[in-house]
Amino acid sequence: MTTVQWRKRISAGPVVHCGIPCIISTRVTVNVIVRGIAHGSIFERVPGSYPQLKREDIGAALLRAAEAVNRYDLVRRLSLRRPKWNSIDREGRQRTKH
């Protein structure tokens, strides 16, 4: 499944779940799916707990979560590369901010 394909299955609008990403037409959030997989229960319980979910929906949720992690990691790495800058406080002393 590509990025374009998972974007067709997941929505994150302000009207549904206050912008939390969820599977379109189900109100099942990506968070619920990823946590279920982490606990090892989602694949066994999907037919009973979430009959509206398809296997492709679970894959889309995992790809969406992976993209969110990559985006967070990129932002974090860029913020760590920020150069140090110096400022002068009210008493005229030079201060370094990291």
Question: Which short descriptors sum up this protein?
Answer:
98 residues; Arc Repressor Mutant, subunit A; 49% helix; 4 helices; two-stranded antiparallel ribbon; single chain
Task: Please characterize this protein's 3D structure.
The chain is an alpha+beta fold. The chain has 4 helices and 4 strands. It has a two-stranded antiparallel ribbon. A two-stranded antiparallel sheet has the order 3-4. Strand 3 and strand 4 form a beta hairpin. It is elongated.
Secondary structure layout plus pairing:
Blueprint: H1 3-7, E1 10-11, E2 22-23, H2 30-38, H3 42-49, H4 55-80, E3 85-88, E4 94-97
Antiparallel strand pairs: 1-2, 3-4
Spatially, the strands of the biggest sheet line up as 1-2
Instruction: Report the sheet-strand fraction.
Output: 5-15%
Main sheet, how many strands, which sense, barrel? 2 strands, antiparallel
Shape: elongated
Query: What is the CATH homology-level superfamily?
Result: Winged helix-like DNA-binding domain superfamily/Winged helix DNA-binding domain
Q: How large is the count of helical segments? A: 4
Q: What's the number of domains?
A: 1
Average the pLDDT over all residues and give the rounded result: 78
CATH structural class: Mainly Alpha
Q: Radius of gyration in whole Å, from Cα?
A: 21 Å
- Spell the H/E element sequence: HEEHHHEE
Cα-to-Cα separation, first versus last residue: 41 Å
CATH topology: Arc Repressor Mutant, subunit A
Structural class: alpha+beta
Q: Provide the helix percentage.
A: 40-55%
Give unreliable regions as ranges: none
The CATH architecture designation is Orthogonal Bundle
Number of strands: 4
